User: What shape does this take?
Amino acid sequence: MKKLTRSLVCAAALGLSVAGPVNAAGISDGVVKIGVLTDMSGVYSAIGGKGSVVAAEMAVHDFGGTVLGKPIKIIAADHQEKADVGSAVAREWIDRDHVDMITDILNSAVGIAVQKLASEKHTITMNTGAGSTALTNKDCTKYGIHYLYDTYALPVGTATAMVKGGGKSWYFITADYAFGHSLQDNTAKVVKSLGGEVKGEVQAPLGTTDFSSYLIQAQSSGAQVIALANAGADTINAIKQANEFGIVAQGQKMAGMLVFLTDVKSLGLNIAKGLQFTTSYYWDRNDASRKFGDAFYAKFGKMPTMDQAGVYSAVLNYLRAVKAAGTDNADAVRAELGKMKIDFFGDTGHIRADGLNVHDMYLVKVKSPKESNPKHGHGWDLLQVEQTIPGDKAYMTLAQGSCPLAK
Amino acid sequence: MGLPLNAVLAQAMLGLNQGAFYALLSLGLAVIFGLLNIINFAHGAFYMLGAFVALIGLTQFGGWIGEPELQINFWAALVLAPLIVGLLGVLIERTMLQRLYKFDHLYGLLLTFGVALVLQGYFTNYYNVNGTPYPGIPASLKGIVNLGFMYFPKYRLFAIAASLVVCFLTWYVIERTKIGAYLRAGTENPNLVQAFGINVPLMITLTYGFGVALAALAGVLAAPIYSVGPLMGANVIITVFAVVVIGGMGSIMGSIVTGLALGMIEGITKVVYPPAANTVIFFVMVIVLLVRPAGLFGREQ
Amino acid sequence: MNKTFWIILFVLGLLAPFAVYPVLMMELLCFALFACAFNLLLGYSGLLSFGHAAFFGSAAYITGFVMTQWNFGPFSGIVAGTLFAGALGLVFGLLAIRRQGIYFAMITLALEQIVFFLSLKLPFTGGEDGLQGIPRGMLFGFIDLNQPLNMYYTVFAIFVACFWLIHRTVHSPFGQVLRAIRENEPRAISLGYNVERIKLLAFVLSATLAGTAGATKSIVFQTASLTDVSWHTSGSVILMTLLGGMGTLLGPIVGAFTVVGLEHELSGIGSWVTVIIGMIFIVCVLAFRRGIVGEIGRLWKRSF
Assistant: This one.
């Protein structure tokens, strides 16, 4: 035991000596390292995964390969959808590999854990994958940026458009966890504020494969709109089974609160046609998005999801901020990111004190097989952009939020 | 809260749908357990494999062999998938499981656990984990029928009917025919049956292949309803274990009846308290095992 | 020779954080402890529990809860988590201990699924987000665990203490009786041992130590999540124990290091890791049922 105490003291002393002074200017350790922390094999791997890594590498290439004369390096890892694995990787990246910025971080639980940890260690995170509004509210941090979308912005556009289009009464099929609940709450607020009503809700457990029971409950409620406050496989199964039971054919409308391009591709236009949802990127929206879409397709064989496009944009803007700040010091870069205009495929956004990147969102509608041109976009001509939702309408205002950093 | 009769009937119908799958899956497990005395952890993986054979046959296989027009349709998959997967089962039994019979039965469970990991990991590398819809429902089964109390997809009616027919045929063969008698005798006293000139090892191999083929059949039937994904087996296997344990390990009728009943219970839970829908079976299991340690239809050893 | 061997291992453990990334080392030790605790049950009393993640995970949640909500220090936090796991072990044990073999495995699995459900639904667990931002705090009020090396040596000390306890248990008369029951239960009964009680005691002890492992891990990673209570975690601890060699003291450690190490080193290749681990496991079950340590031990004995 004595030996142990002695080594403890010894170790503590060593621990202190390891931490050296921090360079305030220039690039620390001669390289800018960006970590893409994503889901390589789990339920979100089609949304981010290897495609996110490709997107990050494209951003480095498009930026010119070096920043301030120093090389840029992309590293990637799988967080396996587990908060502890994610934070372990992030910790190792920051402690051992001196990673300067971590991006993607699909999955809210992982997102919150990594953002917290990285900020404690003065490292910037640019989250493009997770949706939870907690990232910029209760769990907001100094270096944490929520880049792409959140569970407030998603429903706003979709719900507004649908209520205005005559869908006054709503029924929710909600994934029974924080993400689903927050999607539902935010959607319901919008519906009610526009004079609509919520006829009912059902909380489906995570990992439900058969939604028919819930769909039948929704059907018998007589609501005009069946809203899916869920994501990924849940959304796909629910839409597919609604189609199977002829629910849409009998007059009720389906609304997906979080739908990715790959979900539509997987469902097929026959089943998904007419579905409306909100997204922050679609490849066929303007020249800038088409250019990236085509380049990405050439590398990856698929059109990018909004998450993959988000990673590209986040890495690019981070590098611009490093260049402008003349250093990779997190404080200086974060200040620069707060000042500069965030270019997002031709749009501009800005990053607030709470870490939220406020930018425009788009209401889209899935094309019918007839409307889709199979020769256009390598078979990815899937969506029609219906409407632009300006950033300040789409996102919560600072006053509505609860981030202590912005008060 | 006084649910209207139609709503109750509708939910019962959906419960039956779920229950039919549980019955078919747990039946295969029960058959294997009855004769080999091992818990086949890879059952979920074979179920997934069955679905993938159908999906690949329809959408990819033609391309692989340079005949893009060739599609193995649903009916063909219904026969081919159980055959292919059953053969794989035979192979696994012959090359691996057979070496383990002289040891503790737990090794069988552990080996098949390893097999499940390999299959699941392999498919995860190549296919969307969220699942890919199976686009090949035959035209004759498309559409919905009015049952009076609800509109129900024709295909699901077919799936329920097919599962039940296969379940009861299997039960009949094992409990009421000569082949079944050999099987059951082989379980009780392999040496004696061997002495009568019956090739017991071959019988065991074929039984394993058959049990696994049932899982694959369930996979093909499930493909058009759920999406085909690498994790579809891992998600269902634990529930099916519970079904077999509640029914009584190795009891054929037990697993069929319990499968159907638990599907119904799950269906009711989806209306009364949805968040517990995936867990209710385990509550039932704990209660049943406390009252009847060998399960509802099992015999105490 | 035996003593020298353990001393060498101990010294290696002390030096490890200078060669290996400390957090990885801590993760390895936590899972090694978990596997050792599991091995106490499987290897020495022959009971295969398929629900051990319930103890590992619930202890992590309880530790996280008392440290974030009630401002417990790390020591009392780990004690609270450990005690809770022990109590839960008693409940599981009372319900399951009379069942044998597969039935025992399945009833522990069912109970674990219920714990999983509670971990998802209870208000303090943070649902699917889990508990986040558990503070590492100051051990005994003066050792700052935010220092990686302080944290490491704390984990190492916990590991060594628990390992020593397991070692003593296995070689105590109690351990002998356990093995006697595993080998031949009817004979142990006829010798007048209260078999059920002894098994229950072993189960509770194993659950408690699994809890210590989970509690420690929650402080190291500052999170407690649903993964910790899921049946996949129960599956991997079985895998670790078997791979390393059940019924040997060193086996679970080797198994845990192999599995966690592989997952860590190969994390870049996606789910091929699962394939590789599955294959290793199959080979192990087919050809090396004694596990890595068991087989080496056999070769060692044969060659001398």
